Batch of 3 targets.
Target 1
Amino acid sequence: KFAVRGFSESVRHELAMSHSPVRLSVVHPGGVKTNIARNSQAGAYLRDRADRAPLLQRFEQMARTTPAAAASRILRGIARNEPRILVGRDARVMDWIQRLRPARYWSIMARTVLRRAGGQPPASS
């Protein structure tokens, strides 16, 4: 995400310097109630379908933003020419943590996700 943020900020500055009418906003979504998690491929910590089911259920409980609310927020952000559009309370919390603890936010987020998922990462083989 940092690469996208850095790249988009540099493009935004170039557009402004050239007086371009093109505007740029980057969407930072939190959990949105869609089928994206259910239809995704298993990751490194999800070895089989049995491991995956509880995490999908937990995601569905935590994803509180509806697709309609997400779309409304994105359109409002574009209309306001917001450089970064944070979608959902969880996206705002992640942004806040990242700003307060830039060097440690990833470890904080990983611990939180694992705690909410009810487990620890499996031992490496």
Target 2
Amino acid sequence: MTRRRTRGAGGLGALVAGALAAPPADVRALQTATSLEVAAVAAYGALRDLAVVRGNPALVRFVQTTMFQHDEHRQAFQSQTRALGGQPQTAPHPALASVVDQATPTLTTPLDVVTLAETLETVAAHTYLADLAQLEDGASRRLVASVMGVECRHAATLRVFKALLQGAPDLVRFPLGADAARLPPGSLVAGVPEPTEPTTGAVAPDSAALPQ
């Protein structure tokens, strides 16, 4: 009798230990968020080396600055994953990496580059907005919210770039100075087409989580 109870208790203990070792939902979401940042850093690194980017000082500045910020986000998400007892993600999100790999050889104009970059930023912003409704840990919510704000600014800037490239490509530069008066109608509004970002482009919060 005693041995059977011991074995039963041991089996239950193993199940409990396994459950405790499984990454919680917040960890899985942070791992997926990290994968988006890893993919973004790699993508901007590839864009930085393209001749079509090197020939446009405004794009060079945007790509370099944004890549640095995404790497900061990667490190922050990895640190928070560790704080929750999880294993940090180091690989890019497979779906986003696939989009970048397929698109990169076809990038021949600044508009092509900006369109791809907007996709990266939109997916991240939508995903983090969706995550905020699901995250339970307060520190994780604050981190994701702060990063989401940066991604929204990135996306807004790229949308303005797109509007300018289609109507006044010479105005894609820093600073605009007196030429701000030449901005095409609606070009600035293009940066924020809706009162709030939707979540239609979000990836599933556990779509790049590490195996349990």
Target 3
Amino acid sequence: MAPTLSFEFFPPKDLPASFRLWDAAQSLLPLSPEYVSVTYGAGGSTRDLTHETVTALSQQGARVAAHLTCVGATKDETLGVARRYREAGVHDIVALRGDAPKDQSFEPHPDGFASSLDLTAALAKEGFRVQVGAYPEPHPDSRGAAADLDWMRAKMQAGAQRAVTQFFFEPETFLRYRDAWADAGIPGDLVPGILPIHDWTKARSFAKSCGASIPADLNEAFERAIREDRHDLMALAHTVELCDALTSEGVDHLHIYTLNRPDLTREVARALGCPATEPLRKVA
């Protein structure tokens, strides 16, 4: 049986990016995702753009989960944003600590939420369906795997209903984490985050920054594929193999980080047997 899917988009920063986002939505929403999510820029830099994107996607009939972070805002400002989402018919929030602007360390606003745990609890109290992030390999700022699991348990007990993982390159990374999650008795759903690799160099750099291990044999395979001008085929084969291995182990939902580039995601979905309806009609 084909898995259910959800997709992550990021808000556009200029007019050409707006067209790319709409094209991505037009291509992927016919796959009937359970929901789509929209990211939040470092330091809260895309707050208004995120809200506009969430509203636009919601108006297309999609269930949308809006990212919300602890950075750069007071508690009242952050909850004000959340309430604006509710007024727009959006009831799903992805609660995250958030990233500081480049070359700065994370510092919560003195009158803001100190952590994603505090934000999660406040949003759950407001009646939102809350999702949180999870790291199948320890978060770069954590004290280790055991501390990560304790933190995840606290967030889920604070009211989160689902956790979506950072991306990873081998199925065993997620499956080991799922076992550890179960052994720790953590409530809620755990969903793997999947990154289709549009650019191996960028994906490798991102992996280093977020603590995702890079298998030597995979790096070698991509380097060879790049030399032989078959990167796209390698990316498709790797992503489908990863997803297939996960679904074979009972994973029934995949969250895909699309990077607003729909083609590879759509090919992966087709390979996994996910049905698609007709593409959306472009609005003049």
